[in-house]
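Hey, I was hoping to borrow your eyes for a little while. No rush at all, and the record is pasted right below.
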Amino acid sequence: MGSAGEVAKLAEKSARTAFADGPRLLADIGATHARFALQTAPGVFGAVRVLKCEDFAGIVPLLRYYLKDHVDVRLHHAALAVANPISGDFVRMTNRDWQFSTDAVRRELGLTTLLIVNDFTALAMAIPGFARNELMQVGQGTPAPNAVIGVLGPGTGLGVSGVIPTADGFVTLGSEGGHVNFAPGDEREFAILQTAWREWQHVSNERLISGPGMEIIHRALAERNGVEAPGRKAADIIADALERQDPLCLEVLECFCGMLGAAAANLAVTLGAFGGIFIGGGIVPRMGEWFAQSPFRARFEAKGRFSGYIAQIPTYVITASTPALHGVATILAEHLRGRSGANTLMERVTQLRHSLSPAEQRVASLVLEQPRLVLNEPIAEIARLADVSQPTVIRFCRSLGFQGLADFKLKFASSLTGSIPVRHSQVRTSDSTHDLSAKVIDNTVSAILRFRDQLDVRALDRAIELVSRARRVEFFAMGNSRAVALDGQHKFFRFRIPTSLYGDSHLFRLAAELLQPGDVVIAVSNSGSIAELLSAVDIARNAGADVIAISNSQSPLARKATVCLAVDHAEDSTSFLSMISRILQLLLIDILAVGISLDGQHGEAQDVRRLQISHLDS
C-alpha cells in the first residue's frame, strides 16, 4: 500500500478499532534502510515503504519524503526505532552521519508526540507477540514460561537486547551489548581477529558479527588460505555462497554463523534466557533454511561444563516482516495510554483548544506538552513559557470553567493523579532526569494506590488494638527496615508508650527473652526470612508477647506473627534499595499512629491504666 487513498480505505475498513486521533507514524531507521508504516488501528499497518538512508542528508528530509504522499493525513503521534543508543533529547547516530534533537524534529513535523527508541529495544518489545509462523527454530530446546528472552541480530551493526517478564507485561533492556570484546573460539577466528587488529585497537563483536564484519572475515580468510579474491559486499558473499557454492564464501558464512552462535550463547548465560534466544537483523533471514544447518547451533551449545545448561535454551530466527515496527507501535501505545489514561481534563483541553483564542491556544499547548511543569511553576513563568500575558493565563483557566489558575491547578493535579496507571514503568539508562523522576514518582504513586486497594482492614484493627493496650512496644528490624522502625519508635513515644528499637540480630534473642504478656513486638522485614529474627519471634510468642509483622504476607515471619500487616510489593532489591516497599511500610506506621490516636481506649483513661500497671510491677 503506497497512497493516501489506500490508507483511507484501510482506516475505513477498521473503523471500529481505529485510533480516535488518527493514524500513527512508525519507522525503523537503520544505518542502511528505513522502513515506514502508518498504523491506523491496533495491529493494522498501511503504507509500508522501505527507503535507503544514503539518499537523504538527515532524518527530517527522510521523514518529509515519506510523508509527501500522505499530506491529507493528519498525524499527531509518531515513534521511531533508531539503530543507535538513545540518551536524552539529542541523538548522534553511530553508523550514519546524522544528528538531531528529538523535540526539534517533533516541532518541525507538527507532532504532539515523538518517541525515539533503540531499534533492538523495539524488536525486543515485539517478540512476545510473534506467531509461530513468524519464527524459525534452529536446533532443540523448549522455552520456559515467563522466562527471560535474549535478542540479538547482525545488520550494519550488532544489536543486543533482552525481554524480562513482569507481573503486568514485559520490560525490555536498553543494551549496547554488541560492543563487548570479540573472543575467538579457535585458531581461524584468531587469525581473523589479527586482521581486524590492524585497523582497530579494540575489536568488538559488532566489528566482525555484522555486515561490514562479514567483509572483514572474507578478506582475512582469503589471506589465510592464500586465495586471490576480490573484495565483496556482505550481500554478494551470501549470494555467492548459497547460489554459486563459492568455497571461500561458504567458509565465510560458516565462520560468521559460528561466531554468532558463540555470541548468542554468551548472551543466553548472561541473562539466563530460558525463554529463548531470538535472532533478528537484516543478515540471517537472508540465509533462509541454510542457517538451520550452519555451525550456529553447535557453537551455541559448545559451552564446556555448561553445555547441558544451554542445550535447554531454544534459538529462533525472526522471519516476520518489519518486526521492529510492531515493537515500536507497542511502545508508542503504552506511552500514550500512560500519558492520557482516564485524564478527562487533558482530554477537555485537547477538545477545546481549537475554540480558544490564539494566545490561549499557546497556553493549552504548554499544558498538553509539559503538564508537570504547568503544575509546578508560578503564573509568571507559565506566561513566559507560553509567550502570553499573565491575564491570558487566567482567561485560559476561566475558558475551561475554572475560577483561576489556583483552581485549575488543584483540579489538574487531581486529574493527573487519578490517571496514573497501576503498573510499573522501567527506569532505563537512556532516561533523562525529567523522565526518571517522573517514573520513580509515578511508580510509587501506582504502588500506593494498589496498596490502598489491597489493605487488610481487619489486620489493621487488630494491630491498632494490640499497640494501644501494650505495656511496651519493641521494634526488631535490620538494614533498610531500621529506618521504618525508627520512625515508629519516635511516633509511639509521643503516645507515652514505652518503645525500644533493636537493629542488631545478636540482640533480638536477648530482648525477646525479657518480654512478658501484654508486650508487643513489631518486626519489620522485607523478606521475612531472617533466621535470627524468626527465632526471636518464637521466643517472644512463647513468653506471651504478641508480634505484629510488617512483611510479605507469604513469608515465614507472617506465619509466626499474631497479626501480619502485609507489604507484597515486588521489588528488585539486587539493583536498587527497596524504596517503594519502605514507603509502604512507613505508611503502615502512619496508619497505626493515627489509629492509636483515635482509639477510644487512649487518652487519660489509658494513662490511668498505665499508672496502675506500673504500681503493680513495683
Q: What stands out?
A: Residues 1-16, 338-343, 417-424, 600-618 have pLDDT under 50 and may be disordered. The chain has four domains: 4-128+325-338, 131-319, 342-419, 455-617. The domain at 455-617 is CATH 3.40.50.10490 (Rossmann fold).
